[in-house]
Amino acid sequence: MHLRTTTRLAFALTTFLPLIPASGEPTTNWPQFRGPAASGVSENAKPPITWDVEKGENILWKTETPGLGLSSPIVWGDRVFLTTAVRTKGEQPLRVGLYGDIAPVKDDSQFQWQVLCYDLKTGKQLWAKTAFEGTPQIKRHTKASHANCTPATDGSRVIAFFGSEGMYCYDMAGTLLWKRDLGTLDSGYYEVPDAQWGFASSPVIHGDKVIVQCDVQKGSFVAALNIEDGTDVWMTPRKEVPTWSTPAVYKDQVILNGYRHIGAYDLKTGEEIWKMHGGGDIPVPTPIVAHDLIYITNGHGFENPVYAFKPTAKGKLKLKRDENSSEHIAFRLPGKGTYMQTPIIVGERLYLCKDNGVMSCCDAKTGKQIFQARLGKGLTGFTASPVCAGDKLYFTSEDGDVYVVQDGPEFKLLGKNSIGEPSMATPAIIGNTLIVRGQKHLFAI
């Protein structure tokens, strides 16, 4: 894989700010996919549980967004950041719902890949930068866009990743600091290579490193890049088929979901620590951490497992069919795995939601099921991952309905609210405000 780096400006490394808010405080920054440490949780935040977009009730602002992007919003201070892909002529269709078509969208149009910045208080666009312009190298799925990767920020820089169209680093004012070409990143169904679905793994900033997971048809790898100039700190090849999961960092480990290679790598060197063959062959959910356990789930396989790994794991891990735990695995839950959504842990409860809205609540330490319920009538898809504000969970359907569920040992639906358009992006929570991205608008609720 040919790698090219362009450096435009040296940038002094500022003191790295902790991304986990103090216990009991509402989250003030939402720096990456699913917020601090990808937990999806903001303690003590109290966004509304009901709203009305048409009447403006509990709507702080609504802003139109250009193009089609399914990346999630991130927030730092008073700024909201998005990415999008703008077709130079005509609209881009988005087909939501429960279906199994694997054919990509045939579209040879010209596009502009853009990074957008909005004012958190008013929704006013502060700046828009075109990172790349041209024809997409890889086709997208009918339920995807050419801008699926959620950006990341450390308060000084914003990292935007557009797959085959490159990675770009801006300062908070929109000045390009560096860009990096990571080659052609062809993500699609590994059994049908022509089914190109678009790249979706988001970058993660940890200290002075940008962590990227690039599982593709040929030449998969995981890498740590220098946040100052985008050059390699390390790059480790992976014998893996395409995946769409965002990496996680816990202590000194970079943790990746996968099919042939779920695993952990040394944060400093990139050396493999442990690995395991997965159970779902199209891994999408991001690994999450709680109770000193690493939770990984994947779907679209015969097993659809949920794993809880111990961070002390070493070497090659394996469970027999009649085993659901081992020295290095606290538990396995066959059949409970989620396909698109990253699960969420609130206190000692683990919540999982499948594409059809079937939600399970389990004990996070043992895996024992507490209850199961359905969101909606099973006629709509759920792709966006849940988030939690205080003791209330927000599940967003592809139709744009947001279900508010009470955290607790019994299922209690508190509200169902629509944003009036399809939504596939995971919301952000800042203070008492919920930032929701729809197909054509960004909402502050």
Q: Can you walk through the features of this model?
A:
The protein has 445 residues and is mainly beta. The protein contains no helices and 35 strands. The chain has a 5-stranded antiparallel sheet with strand order 1-11-10-9-8, with no helix packed on it. The chain has a 5-stranded mixed sheet with strand order 2-29-30-31-32, with no helix packed on it. Strands 16-17-18-19-23 form a 5-stranded mixed sheet, with no helix packed on it. Strand 31 and strand 32 form a beta hairpin. 51% of the residues are buried. Residues 1-23 have low confidence and may be disordered.
Helix content: under 10%
Report the span from N to C terminus: 44 Å
Given helix and strand content, the structural type is mainly beta
State the low-pLDDT regions, or none: 1-23
Beta-strand percent range: 35-45%
The number of distinct β-strands equals 35
Secondary structure: elements and pairs:
Layout (H helix, E strand, L loop, with lengths): L3 E4 L33 E2 L18 E4 L9 E3 L2 E9 L23 E9 L5 E10 L17 E2 L3 E5 L5 E5 L4 E6 L22 E3 L2 E6 L6 E6 L5 E6 L10 E3 L2 E4 L5 E5 L5 E5 L11 E3 L2 E5 L8 E4 L5 E2 L12 E5 L10 E3 L2 E5 L4 E6 L5 E6 L12 E3 L2 E5 L4 E6 L6 E6 L9 E3 L2 E5 L3 E4 L1
Parallel strand pairs: 2-29, 19-23
Antiparallel strand pairs: 1-11, 3-35, 4-5, 5-6, 6-7, 8-9, 9-10, 10-11, 12-13, 13-14, 14-15, 16-17, 17-18, 18-19, 20-21, 21-22, 22-24, 25-26, 26-27, 27-28, 29-30, 30-31, 31-32, 33-34, 34-35
